[in-house]
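User: Could you go from structure to sequence for me? I need the amino acid at each position, not a summary. Structure tokens:
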């Protein structure tokens, strides 16, 4: 009987492995703790891309090589601009980025390498599309890990925040760079989210 049970378990495990292999690997990680916010009337001046047509630039969103909050500093390890926004997301978020013209992304790490993070900003058609993307991030879809993220990134103990700001969506995501690390993510989350302040400057243009 035990041999029969063991054989069944092996078949199930092999089947699961084959399923994941056929899909291109293990399921994409997502944040264990997530907070999403819809846009508000404060962002009405940039509620559509027509009202705010200038494309985002890396220099505008990531003007320096690091971000700081409290006593925590994270250094930029790489930035990129994607014109195919679906490359940066998975699941239901792929549908939600229809009409997105660009996504800018930066990967961060603390000097000791214990915390890894990323910040993304999506340029969508309007605030309705932005709210739809934040909703997709809550369940059924999320962003992909940025290039250079440590292989051991612990999504099961990570935090993320997404906000619709007019026709933009920002997402900051931080977590332990290795499974089993116990780190305080509070200030790291605030620091990695700080590039979103660039959107406030767009309100004044």
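Assistant: Here is the amino acid at each position, in order:
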């Amino acid at each position: 009987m035990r041999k029969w049970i063991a054989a069944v378990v092996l078949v199930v495990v092999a089947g699961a492995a084959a399923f994941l292999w056929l899909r291109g690997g293990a399921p994409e990680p997502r944040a264990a703790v997530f907070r999403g916010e819809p846009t508000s009337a404060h962002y009405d001046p940039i509620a559509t891309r027509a009202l705010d047509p200038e494309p985002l630039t890396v220099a505008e969103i990531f003007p320096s090589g690091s971000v700081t909050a409290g006593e925590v500093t994270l250094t930029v390890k790489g930035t990129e601009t994607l014109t195919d926004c679906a490359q940066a997301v998975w699941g239901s978020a792929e549908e939600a980025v229809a009409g997105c013209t660009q996504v800018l992304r930066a990967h961060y790490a603390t000097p000791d390498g214990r915390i890894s993070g990323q910040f993304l900003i999506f340029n969508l058609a309007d605030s309705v599309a932005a709210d739809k993307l934040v909703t997709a991030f809550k369940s059924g879809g999320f962003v992909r890990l940025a290039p250079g993220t440590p292989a051991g990134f612990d999504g099961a103990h990570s935090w993320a925040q997404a906000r619709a700001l007019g026709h933009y969506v920002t997402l900051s995501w931080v977590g332990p760079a290795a499974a089993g690390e116990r780190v305080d993510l509070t200030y790291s989350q605030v620091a990695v989210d700080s590039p979103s302040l660039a959107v406030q400057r767009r309100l004044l243009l």
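One structural detail worth keeping in mind: The helical segments are 2-23, 58-61, 93-96, 127-138, 186-193, 197-202.
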